[in-house]
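REQUEST FORM: STRUCTURE PREDICTION
Request ID: SP-0412
Submitted by: Lab K.M.
Chain count: 1
Length (residues): 159
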Amino acid sequence: MLSIPTSLRPLVSCIAAMLALPALATPRGAAAQSTPARPPLRSAVFPPDTGRLRVTDAGVFRALVDTATSNLTRLEIHVTTLGPGKSPHPPHRHAHEELMIVRNGTLDVFQNGTTRRAGPGAVIFEASNELHGLRNPGPDSATYVVIRLDPHDLPIPGP
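STATUS: Completed
RESULT:
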């Protein structure tokens, strides 16, 4: 069973209500620091067809939200639909943590040298600075929700 840090439990319990948030807020970085801060995201419900679409040869990415909350410097949520045999990008690592919820299809989840299979309803946790990647083994598309969590004390990477 997945162990969620106590400080993130309220956020995780609200994820079901936040799976379809629209694109909001300013991206994190130097430009964002020079503009006035937006108020933290408040509770809301949004239609599932909102957000910005980006189409690549790997699949379709729908950006739903990218903003600060009361507990996080950044909450970013997007929905990805990968084509059969596709990956969104090569395995990588980063300081923030991520949760992924598989809506349909199958994903091969690479984590620190081990590959596990995740199907509909599976929840994937990617820990800070651990090597990870995803691939849709096919034969159909796979859709999953990505929830990026940047706590207030996470260092902002330099240029």
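NOTES: Residues 6-27+45-140 form a domain with the Jelly Rolls fold (CATH 2.60.120.10).
Reviewed by: T.R.
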